[in-house]
Design a protein that fits this description.
Layout: H1 3-21, H2 32-43, H3 50-61, H4 66-87, E1 97-98, E2 101-102, H5 104-107, H6 110-129, H7 137-151, H8 156-166, H9 175-185, H10 187-201, H11 204-231, H12 234-237, H13 243-246, H14 252-275, H15 284-295
Antiparallel strand pairs: 1-2
Helix pairs in contact: 1-3, 1-4, 2-6, 3-4, 3-10, 4-6, 4-10, 7-10, 8-9, 10-11, 11-14, 11-15, 14-15
């Protein structure tokens, strides 16, 4: 089985898991069905599920049950979906297209999109805190804590704030500042997903190794995003491109050039693979995930 086939098979498992988790209550009334429709619209039927894949694969490496890994992966995917819904809003990136279809606020409206994002964010923590994810309360608490750090001010939200502030700053961000921004905005949730299997296994040494892997993977992933923004086409990407260039924002490409950005991405992949070398053949799919991150078309 090649990597894309394996990734697709895991994505299908994650889709089934998410389908079961994002179901409106039988007693739903008034506007509730519309909320659940928006949550499902934002989450189901699209995306590579790379974050969910990392959680599921990490759990397999650590000998954790497949169900636990898929549930942790589903939590990461719910949080990721919430972030995209809110990022696409007019007050943020003001995007009309996501994964080749209208963004959630275009398909529904802004108020429903905000509420759907809020509900997906809290659902992510509900999944992590549920005994169905792990029998140990301490392990579930550690999983919730790791997700909170990845999602909040020290992570994704803080990175988004830096990104917003950079749009009106007098000076463009330096390469060090962009690296920190992306490690927070994009990389923090990728790091949580990669560490989830080790958290579920309560193995601190493995968590450190997977965290280092994910830090480099996240940067490689973002550098590839910056390259696709200038080299890709919107049909393949399923979203509007060249937004950063049009907004005059500094990116890895604008600061390093195309060839420099490619070199930097390759170096991050090498560092990611080195971090999990001790896993041996068990780390095969994570190694291939790192290579996939810099060769993907969307």
């Amino acid at each position: 089985m090649d990597f894309t086939t394996h990734l697709g098979a895991t994505a299908a498992e994650l889709e089934t898991t998410l389908e079961a988790l994002i179901r409106q209550p039988a007693a739903a009334t008034m506007g509730e069905p519309r909320l659940w429709d928006a949550m499902r619209y934002a989450t189901l039927g699209g995306g590579k599920r790379l974050r969910g894949f990392l959680a599921a694969e990490g759990a397999t490496i650590m000998g954790v049950s497949r169900q636990a890994g898929l549930r942790a992966g589903a939590a990461a995917e719910c949080l990721h979906a919430y972030s995209l819904v809110h990022d696409d809003l007019p007050a943020m990136d003001d995007d009309d297209l996501r994964r080749g279809k209208p963004t959630t606020h275009k398909a529904f409206d802004e108020a429903i999109a905000i509420l759907a994002g809020d509900a997906l964010q809290t659902l992510a923590f509900e999944i992590c805190a549920d005994p169905a994810t792990h029998s140990s309360g301490n392990v579930r608490a550690n999983l919730c804590h790791a997700l909170a750090v990845a999602a909040g001010g020290p992570g994704m939200v803080g990175g988004q704030m830096i990104d917003i502030a950079a749009e009106t700053a007098d000076q463009a961000l330096t390469i060090e500042q962009i690296t920190r921004l992306q490690a927070m905005k994009t990389g923090a949730l990728i790091k949580f997903a990669a560490e989830a299997g080790a958290i579920l296994a309560d193995d601190r040494a493995a968590q450190d190794a997977l965290g280092t892997y994910a830090t480099h993977l996240g940067l490689a992933f973002q550098i590839r995003d910056d390259l696709l923004d200038v080299e890709g086409d919107e049909a393949s990407a399923g979203k509007r491109l060249q937004k950063d260039a049009n907004a005059g924002k500094a990116t890895f490409v604008s600061l390093l050039g195309v060839s420099g950005a490619r070199k930097a991405a390759s170096e991050e992949v090498d560092a990611a693979i080195a971090a999990i070398r001790d896993f041996g053949s068990q780390g095969k799919w994570l190694q291939e995930a790192a290579e996939f991150a810099i060769h993907r078309k969307n």
